[in-house]
């Protein structure tokens, strides 16, 4: 996925949904939120806190509310795209320009802003144990350098690697992922360090 430096670049670089993204941007810029780019995508913040982002994929475009799990969602449009993993973030997927309802979007943004002002937040669960999948455990047993480096990583970084392997469905995918990450682990790098 390409990482853009400006919102204009992001919209221009989208293979589809450019007009729809421009319309969402226009609506969000009419609110009190500040526009920025985080993780290569448009992000709208209130007093430095991420509130909502916009994005586009092949079959839909949409909004991401970072604390969407707190929203009342009277229209029933918000979904958890990573059920069981994401507690706070919710997506609002759209598939046409006519689905964009400025008044409704602004109402959701207003509620999200008010929740932020009041200090409401779903915080990630900290301190849960790291479950290392058998494939990663076996690979680390064969590579002492990687094992030593893995043990020195923070629990969060260990969990990222463990989840990366565990989430792969096919054995071939697990094997190719292990081949990719073992040198990174041996160097003491986290899976997502390049995004930090």
Automatic annotation (TrEMBL):
Q: What is this protein called?
A: YdhG-like domain-containing protein
Pfam families linked:
DUF1801, OmdA
Domain YdhG-like: start-end pairs:
17-112
In its UniProt entry, the species of origin is given as: Stieleria neptunia
């Amino acid at each position: 996925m390409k990482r853009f430096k400006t919102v204009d670049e992001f919209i221009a670089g989208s293979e589809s949904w450019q007009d729809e993204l421009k319309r969402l941007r226009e609506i969000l810029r009419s609110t009190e939120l500040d526009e920025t780019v985080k993780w290569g995508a448009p992000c709208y913040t209130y007093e430095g806190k991420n509130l909502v982002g916009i994005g586009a994929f092949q079959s839909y475009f949409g909004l991401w509310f970072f604390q969407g799990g707190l929203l009342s969602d009277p229209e029933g449009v918000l979904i958890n795209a990573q059920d069981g993993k994401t507690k706070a973030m919710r997506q609002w997927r759209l598939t046409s320009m006519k689905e964009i309802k400025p008044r409704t979007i602004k109402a959701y943004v207003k509620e999200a802003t008010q929740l932020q002002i009041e200090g409401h937040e779903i915080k990630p669960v900290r301190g849960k144990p790291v479950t290392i999948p058998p494939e990663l455990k076996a690979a680390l047993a064969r590579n002492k350098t990687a094992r030593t480096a893995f043990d020195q990583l923070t629990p969060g970084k260990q969990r990222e690697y463990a989840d990366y392997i565990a989430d792969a469905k096919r054995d071939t995918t697990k094997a190719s992922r292990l081949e990719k990450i073992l040198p990174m682990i041996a160097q003491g790098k986290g899976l997502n360090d390049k995004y930090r």
